[in-house]
Specification:
The protein is of the alpha+beta class. It is built from six helices and five strands. Helices cover about 40% and strands about 15% of the residues. The site of one FE2/S2 (inorganic) cluster has 12 residues, from loops. The site of one FE2/S2 (inorganic) cluster (FES) has 10 residues, from loops.
Length: about 150
């Protein structure tokens, strides 16, 4: 079936299988590799994208259902001014090691700030679905606190 949606500001049309996930379509059909495949079962957050303003795990979204929606991927987010500030804060605090989880964290943090999150506890709750196997979260939260002070 053919699906049309807005992807990072431009309309795309793509043929998808009824059972195909948005993650698969983004990575394999549209070649957007900033969206990462981690667990494939909604537990790690590596595949996070913004769907109609909300962060979602794209491995759990059927591509056939996103017709008419707006999807933003981590590479797009990283090119925005806020996205660059998030990446800078993470780099400055040593919050990136292997980097595999980073696109998901970036995207979730970006979506949370856009919808008005301004304190560390709320951001911690927003990030519950994002797992990092390397940094132990301390440096990620340091980056978040630095950023929140900046955007207040
Ligand atoms: S790959 Fe989607 S949540 Fe892990
Ligand atoms: S930096 Fe390696 S999984 Fe988070």
């Amino acid at each position: 079936m053919r699906v049309s949606f807005r992807l990072n500001g431009s309309v795309v049309e793509v043929d998808v299988e009824p059972h195909e996930t948005l993650l698969n379509v983004l990575r394999d059909r549209l070649k957007i590799k900033s969206v990462k495949y981690g667990c494939g079962i909604g537990e790690c957050g590596a595949c996070t994208v913004i769907l109609d303003g909300r962060p979602v795990t794209s491995c759990l979204v059927l591509a056939a259902k996103v017709g008419g929606s707006e999807v933003l991927t981590p590479d797009y987010v990283a090119r925005t001014e806020l996205g660059r500030r998030i990446v800078d804060a993470m780099l400055e605090e040593g919050a990136i090691q292997c980097g595999y989880c980073t696109p998901g964290f970036l995207t979730t943090i970006y979506a949370a700030i856009i919808r008005g999150v301004r304190d560390a506890d709320s951001m911690r709750r927003a990030l519950l679905g994002n797992l990092c196997r390397c940094t132990g979260y301390v440096n990620i939260m340091k980056a978040v606190k630095r950023l929140l002070e900046d955007v207040r």
